[in-house]
TrEMBL record:
PANTHER family: DNA RECOMBINASE-RELATED, DNA-INVERTASE FROM LAMBDOID PROPHAGE. It comes from Neorhodopirellula pilleata. Residues 14-164 form the Resolvase/invertase-type recombinase catalytic domain. GO terms for molecular function: DNA binding; DNA strand exchange activity. InterPro entries: DNA_bind_recomb_sf, DNA_bind_recombinase_dom, Resolv_N, Resolvase-like_N_sf, SSR_resolvase. Coiled coil: none annotated. SMART domains: Resolvase. SUPFAM superfamilies: Resolvase-like. This is Recombinase. Residues 195-318 form the Recombinase domain. Transmembrane segments: none annotated.
Length: 517
């Protein structure tokens, strides 16, 4: 009887381990994680029967993390032959910008009867209130770490750009990347895909082979002097067997890129597009680009380059509104569906950006051309107007707070306002939508990633042109990140409804307290 009891006590629990390493610290190497997990498994009577490893993968989202995806799939389809998952710590599970996403994947495991253990953490993941609170805090901290790191990296990259160093991306046709040491001495040219290995090394752009330099100048000559179009230039290069820097045939787009990129006159330009924290890629306005003029040796003369820019701008102006709409109609006859990519690829048609600049949006140009997309895209124009209104509204709030004697700082990445160093607020504009019955509705997705103490919800009128009222929603009373407001919403929500921001401003006012002598 005693022997059977010992045998039962020694029965091992089957477990899988998940390890992830990005690139930031050696302490998070998969080998180090494995050591801690193995030690945890030995003490807790786990037998590791499977390993899921994502090496060199960001923890910002699940995309690209094939092992995590495979593990979750195994758990959901019932093919997981283990009862527990062992992870180094909360941050290795993921630095999701939405902490609820991290909790969601753990919940999927728990629902399947598989527990998740964080081996290097100081709390027991037993589902109790203490572990739930600590996990929530650590998940938020993991996401915040990524945001802070992103800001620091961006600032560092901007500084290097201003010093004349290249930051990422291929060199381009006619150019090469040169590795230099900390004293500025050239070390070697980097082949495509090669990176610097020493932190003190830097990369600059230098001229490529003489034949490529001649081709770049020929392209500018054909465009500026001979008056050829981009498609004609591409056809000429292809007929001569000249390939792009990627070994591909030339197209209208690749020729246009060569004609418009300032690196060919030696300028170092950065932040033309943003893709922070794996979010949506956006094109930035030129006034926030980071640049260093004359950082590299020029491939073409400034006179030739800026003449080409002038031709491109004037060519866009030469099209009348009717000409541009006619081009769209001709394109519609050849293609049942229009898109920005299709417009940019078409010959003898202005670019999609030209349509946006001339008509305010592609949707408006489509409408004038008689093209009706499958979906109703009116909301795009409304959202664009709201985005244009936002800076004025947030500026008004900051001015009001300042006039009330409050100190206000604004986070450049999240637009979060920190007031008196005590509490935070964010503003969200909600467009008005009309139901088939004529009722008005306002949908709002409360920002959970930045978790402001107060969300200022701005409701627009039925025409989405003027502000109707404001809702001041404290984070503690927001039960769902997705709210649907009607014209009246009952006492629970309408308690927070205000016709102006006077009450919100009064919250920040300082009152002197008299001290008795």
């Amino acid at each position: 009887m005693h022997a059977n009891t010992d045998q039962t006590e020694m029965k091992l629990v089957r477990a899988a381990q998940y390890v992830r390493m990005s690139t930031e610290h050696q302490q998070y190497s998969t080998a180090n994680q494995d050591d801690i997990i193995q030690e945890y498994a030995k003490k807790r009577n786990f037998e590791i029967v499977k390993t899921y490893a994502d090496e060199g993968k960001s923890g910002l989202n699940v995309a690209g993390r094939r092992s995590l995806q495979a593990m979750i799939a195994d758990v959901q389809n019932g093919s997981a032959d283990y009862e527990a998952i062992l992870v180094y710590d909360v941050s290795r599970w993921g630095r999701f910008q939405d902490a609820d996403e991290s909790a969601y994947y753990e919940y999927l495991c728990k629902r399947a009867g598989i527990s998740v253990h964080y081996c290097a953490e100081q709390f027991e993941n037993d589902g109790g209130p203490t572990s739930t609170i600590i996990k929530s805090v650590k998940r938020a901290m993991a996401g915040e770490y990524s945001r802070e790191l992103s800001t620091k990296v961006f600032q560092g990259q901007c500084r290097l750009i201003e010093l004349g160093y290249r930051q990422g991306g291929p060199a381009g046709f006619g150019l090469r990347r040169m590795l230099i040491d900390q004293s500025g001495e050239a070390k070697a040219q980097l082949a495509r895909g090669e990176c610097k290995s020493l932190q003190t090394d830097r990369v600059i752009l230098v001229k490529g082979p003489e034949q490529e330099i001649e081709t770049v100048n020929r392209v500018y000559q054909m465009f500026v002097v001979e008056g050829r179009r981009e498609r004609q230039i591409a056809d000429q290069l292809n007929s001569e067997g000249i390939a792009t820097d990627l070994g591909r045939s030339w197209s209208r787009g690749t020729v246009r890129q060569l004609l418009t990129n300032e690196k060919y006159i030696g300028n170092n330009v950065y932040n033309r597009t943003s893709f922070k924290l794996k979010q949506r890629r956006v094109s930035n306005e030129p006034d926030i680009w980071i640049r260093k003029n004359a950082a590299f040796e020029a491939v073409v003369s400034q006179e030739l380059f800026y003449t080409a820019q002038g031709i491109i701008r004037e060519r866009a102006k030469c099209y009348s509104d009717e000409d541009m709409i006619t081009c769209l109609r001709l394109l519609m006859e050849q293609n049942p569906t229009l898109s920005a990519g299709l417009i940019d690829a078409a010959d003898n048609t202005p670019t999609s950006s030209t349509y946006r600049n001339r008509f305010g949006s592609l949707i408006r140009a489509y409408r004038l051309a008689g093209y009706q997309p499958d979906r109703d895209y009116d909301y795009i124009e409304i959202n664009q107007k709201l985005r244009e209104m936002y800076p004025d509204l947030i500026g008004d709030v900051m001015a009001r707070l300042g006039a009330a004697g409050a100190s206000v700082t604004q986070d450049v990445d999240t637009d979060l306002l920190l007031i008196n160093g005590e509490y935070s607020a964010s503003m969200m504009l909600s467009r008005c939508r009309q139901t088939k019955s004529g009722s008005l509705r306002w949908m709002i997705n409360v920002e959970q990633k930045v978790a402001p103490d107060i969300t200022i919800l701005v409701r627009m009128d039925a025409a989405n042109e003027h502000v109707v009222d404001y809702y001041l929603l404290p984070i503690m009373d927001i039960q769902s990140p997705r709210l649907l407001l009607c014209e009246t919403n009952g006492v629970y929500l309408d308690t927070y409804q205000f016709d102006s921001l006077d009450y919100f401003t009064s919250l920040s006012e300082r009152t002197k307290i008299e001290v008795a002598a």
